[in-house]
Amino acid sequence: MNSATTIVLVHGAFADASSWHPVTERLLAQGHRVIAPPVFNRSLSADAAYIKSVIEQIDGPVLLAGHSYGGAVITVAGVADNVIGLVYVSGYALDDGESLGQLQGGFPDSELAAHLVYTPYPAGDGEQGTDVSVDVEAFPEVFAAGVDATVAKVLAVSQRPLSAFAFGEPASTAAWKTKPGWGIVSSADHTINPDVERFGYKRAALRSVIEIDAPHLVMQTHPDEVTTVITNALAELA
Predict the structure, then answer these.
(1) Which residue in 5, 67, 40, 52 sits closest to 222, CA to CA?
(2) Which range, of 64-73, 117-126, 150-159, averages the lowest pLDDT?
(3) How many helices, marked H, and strands, marked E, lie in the chain?
(4) Cα 29 → chain centroid
(5) For the whole model, what pTM was predicted?
(6) Residue 143 contacts residue 162 (beta carbons within 8 Å)
(7) Whole-number Å distance between alpha carbons of 9 and 12
């Protein structure tokens, strides 16, 4: 184990840092340094800038792990000098100049697309934004499949929406071009078409990609396997 390395766990849309809880618990029990910061889901550039600022204030090297939209965030934030590796978990590995919408647009929609809810919100200076969330009734099946039913209901009503702006905003850079990466494909994912994950990982030439017969919240349903991927990446970098 590289004890000097901090593992930063970046959550995705429609979730918060607690989505990493089972993995966070295991990593801490193994003695790793872990931070699971909030992502505000306002825009890719702003979210990545915030996570990058968190990373740059960490003393020592950082291994980034990003779930779902968090994969897009680490793609941009991962250019921070002290980032030594990237782990994509059911995530978007964007190219520079590419948006979430563009990457997803090359593949059939997942089940999620039919269950999104759009809600206006005041964006400041008289502007209006649009929040995107998952229909509460559909959430357990399309986003939290495989998670305990009671937990899934709690996650549904406490989800963190994603600004619609984030879907169309291009990534300003792609950290995987200069940093080594690892990937997990959730082959039973109803939120992101697994082929989106496969394509992004192949294009990024990640060092290792594994497929888990798991839903989107693979950190909740298969925490041991996710933890192992992260710790194996850390061992390779030691």
Answers:
(1) 67
(2) 117-126
(3) 10, 9
(4) 22
(5) 0.96
(6) no
(7) 10
Structure tokens at 75: 């793609």
- What sign has the CA pseudo-torsion 129, 134, 136, 137? positive
Residue 124's beta-bridge partner residues?
127
Provide the 10 A C-beta neighbour count for residue 158. Answer: 11
**pLDDT tens by residue, 44-54:** 999 999 999 99
Residue 39 tokens, joined: 């992502």
Alpha-carbon distance of 237 to 120, in angstroms, equals 44
SS3 letters for 149-161?
HHHHHHHHHCCCC
Q: In the numeric block, which tokens belong to residue 223?
A: 């925490």
Question: pLDDT tier at 238 (50, 70, 90 boundaries)?
Answer: confident
Residues 6+ apart with CB under 8 A from 57: none
- Residue 222: count other Cβ atoms within 10 Å of its Cβ: 21
Beta-strand pair 127-134/83-89: unpaired
Q: What is the set of domains in the chain, with CATH numbers?
A: 6-237 (3.40.50.1820)
